[in-house]
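Thread: FE2/S2 (inorganic) cluster complex, take 2
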Amino acid sequence: MGKTPYVLKETRGRVAYCACGHSKKLPHCDGSHKGSGVGPRVVNVPEDRTAAVCACGRSGSQPYCDGSHKNV
Ligand code: FES
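Output below.
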């Protein structure tokens, strides 16, 4: 888990972000969750944009950052 968010460009469409922590392509899901009982957080991105994706695991707006990492 990181202490600051992943700031990245999202492309319009479905995006699957890792929720299990085992992906080798964080913050994106790479299928490594299979068998863990935890699946990815899938979002529909309405337009191309820059986003801050939670890396600390404490955001109340998963998969996106809500600033909670400032209290880690
Ligand atoms: S690899 Fe972590 S949820 Fe898919």
